[in-house]
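Usage example:
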Amino acid sequence: MSDPLSHYCQQQNENTITYTSSTGKFITIKKKEQQGISNPDNNIISNSSFWKNGSNYGIDINTLMDNINKKKEEKQKQHDHNRSTTNKNSTDKNNTNKGTLWAEKWRPSLFLDLVGNEKNNRKILKWLRHWAPLVFQEDLPKNFFTNSIVNTSNKDVDIKEDLEKDILQRPAKKILLIYGSPGIGKTTVAHVLSKQAGFTPREINASDERAGTKLKDKLTNTLFNASVDKNDSPVCLICDEIDGSIENGIIKNLIDILNKDIVATKELGHSVVVSATDNVAKNKLKSKTKALRSKILTRPIIIICNNLYSKPLEKLRSYCEIIHFHKPNEKELLTRLELICKTEKINASKKTLMKLIEICQSDIRNCINNLQFLSNNNSTQGAGLITLDVDINNNEDNNQNIEKDVPLPWYQLVQLIFQKNPKIDGSIIFLTLLNKLELQSFSTIDRIISGCFNNYSIVKYSDIGSVNKPSALSNWLYFYDLLQGKIYSTNGGTEFEVLRYAYVIPLVFHELFADVTNFRNNHAIDFQFGNKFSSLELRNKISNLRNIVDLIKKNLTPCDLYIYYNSNSQIFINELLPYVNILLNTDYLKTITDSNLRNKVVSENIIPLIHINIPVLKFIVNGKNEQFLDVSPPIYKIVEFGTEENNYGNVNMMLKRNICYKYLLSKLEEYKINNKRKRSYENEKNTSGSVTNTNNSNKKVKKSNIVNNDNIVNHNISSTSPSSTNTGSFTSIAPTLDNNTDKRGKSKPTNAFEFFKMKTVVPLSDKDVRNGADGIVTIANDMNKNKKEGLKVEEDRVWVKYKEGFSNAVRKKVTWKTLFE
Amino acid sequence: MSLWVDKYRPSTLAELSHNEHVTNILKSLSENNPNDLPHLLLYGPNGSGKKTRTMCLLNSIFDSSVYRLKIDVRQFQVNSRKLELNVVSSPHHVEITPSDLGGSYDRVVIQELLKEIGQTEQVEFGSNISNTANNNSNSNKSPRFKVVIINDANSLSLDAQAALRRTMEKYSKNIRLFMLCDSLSSIISPIKSRVLLLRIPAPTNQEIVSILDSICFKQQVNIENKDNSCLLKIASFANGNLRLALLTLESMAMANNLTLKDTTSVIRPDWQVVLMKMSNKIIKERNVKCLIECRSMLYELLAHCIPADVILHDLTMFIISALANPTIIIGVVKNASIFDERLALGSKVIYHLEGFIANVMCEMEK
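Running the assembly step on the lines above writes:
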């Protein structure tokens, strides 16, 4: 508890101690004799040898306490004296009391007056003291860094690490940032501690101009110019309320200063011998050019804000030593308030004060303000000793008067809206709700309304089940929708004032759906605040589907298809895709008994569908090695309902489809092979020269190889994902079923094998690599011995068709050799 | 060509099947000096063949190279925002869908793209492309303009339409506009006065049936009953939308072993099935529980990119078709119109759709 004092105290030698008083003066005190405890108060700490050890930067807390107590006594005496001598004066004093806010009057001016945040206070003081070597040319105590306090906490160790020395023995981070909720004494702490550490606080707050050159001058003046008066102590800059500055001029300036400082320090660091003692460093510093010195930051800066994460602070944050100020402990607050009450002659019980603290949410400034307000109220009634208790207790029921205006979370409000307290008059509930709603921002109102909308079916209300109320509600929701449209309208936000009408809509919900039963079993109601039905969720889903549609549209290779359907994607979604989906559910194939007819249907209707690239058939292998026919892009996601829960979409349907899919696959293979043959003939005819597609690694091809269990068709279907670009390299998975390495396969050119990096050769496979819309590389390879096809063995030739855009402008003959060179 | 609707799509004016008088107008336009061709605005319901006719017309004015298309992605810079628009183009025409951009950005596209096209004079294609030389010798002269097709013209913003006005006159030497839209109501009158308005009516049920019949014949689809009642069923379901009719026909034929019986049920898209279920629900149970169930269905429909006005329209139709009492029907229609307006003015569609359902329920309670 007594450690903090020692931060600013220094042990000069065994017998004397210097400490810096609150006004910045240095006071040298003789050490007391160990046994000579003159003041009985000093008994608190009996082991004074503890202090002698210098474990605590050398200050005798006892001496300090003595001094303070003496001063207090003197003051008290004077006070009493004044009171007793002049009764008239006392009334005058009351008047003067009214003139100043108590919050100001009772602002702590001494370290001991500070309430709460002890650890943080110490941290700040330590940080400030860290500037001492530079500013006061003092040596830090040896144990400043090797913190040997008996009850060393982890935090202290952290501080030690944080406060690393730089060449000028400044803290590593040159700015101290204090943040915390309002009214807990951040500004006060900064002022008190800077005074305590021997600085003169110089404050820049939101009331000052914080932009332009004026500010810059002010900053440089305070930070870099030495005071004329020798007696003045060095300045400590306190930038208060920094997050309030919209024009972040001050932050920009600070960052500028810091950056310059870093550069200058580096320069300095190069020239100064690292091992130099402080004095040497100082001498060297003096010998430095003025320009360099004027850039080095030699004064501490403290920044105070409420919200650490406000946007203007973003850049500055990394430069700062950040200290979070917590709300003071209620007990500490209570003692402080009791002291105030005692001196201001207010009769307040502990309970009342606790209540006050609770109402003000530990905001000490607010507490004192309220205290003053309440005491004034009573004093006008002529009471000498003010009794607060009645006042606050009276306010218990409707304490909105002094209740701190803090918006409730929106979901709590939603619950409140559906409640009706039977004990309270309806109009009062209405008013309370309105008050609470008016504290909310518009976005929260929106959330409240959608929350009400999602939940009104869950709660109980009179006339339940009938649709009259929802239908009445619809008119109000329309009204709200119009309001929102006005507020977000692009033609300037001039109609923002209509926002106030938006508060009415939650009240409509209250009017229509609030009921006593909801009040009684509020906990039984299972409110839904999830985002299942939120507009955001909806928008995400829609945009997902739109992306799929765009993907499909992009991949429509035959342009004439594109022109008929691009006019409106709605036609695509509403008319075309549902039917394409139905056609692709090849389920119906098994109903066609005539095999010729089936062949015809597949080759004329389904394969072209696949071929035109609206969908690309793809195979999914699930864990059990089962295969499904899947459609990619997933059209079913757009047109089918009730499949969202299932990750694989319609696995059931695919299971059904499974029966025909082998058949379909064989047809697909056949079609492809025919196509390839056709193409290869075309290519043979085409005798044009060299290959444009030089780098095979430019082709990224995603492959998925599936082996048919039936061994009827052994296929190896590859398809590129449309989004893949022309980078990467071929990857290939060797079909698993193939266990006999075919001799014929080995007769293939070895480059080809290296290229595919395959261990085995697939005798019956053909590789069709289709690269989206960008270009088509087809590698027809080894497609003989197919039972159905009965094709002749072709030479091991690779035909590469390179297609750029949609024109067949470049079609060149390529062999493996040229391709892989 | 894969889908029947594309497979049997006419590609020349001579092949066009329904609405002979419109076809005749188009024929006369293409046979006269093509340089006299006016700006065109084709309007008519969805699936009545506006685009098909436009392409046929282009085919007859130029040659079949209008079907040789490529798709470019054009980028436009608007206030530091980059916009992308797919532009389909052939040697003779450019096709844009400004409504893809959304908002009022279409004005920029109209201004930049049209000016760019309008300021470049077309070169003689006949001299460059050998295979078109024959065609050119047949026609009196290859037209010196490029055609710009604007899809979905009724969703052009007022700014964009205003931007069109002067462009249409100024660059008329090099440019012809073919605008396609569903309804004329949102086209400003200065535009209307500058174009030749051509209404493409939807084919009648009889016309649709005859088209379906011919395709069934070509595709060897058996129709059991010769009075075509099944085809008629499809036609009445399609309601003049030939594309829808053909898609339905194909999927029905596929799903039923290429034979159509009288009893074969019409295949509807899933979203319509959901709407039908919903309308039945609304009529049967009129309480809040049902309303909430409808709400989740509505959410799902919306999440599947079905626009709110389509939902409202089809739902109303389904409800009306199931109702008998004329006063209730009037009430439902009245509500539908009220909420259609609200949908157009507001942005929170789910509130209005649910409000519509609630109001309809109230109407039926009376």
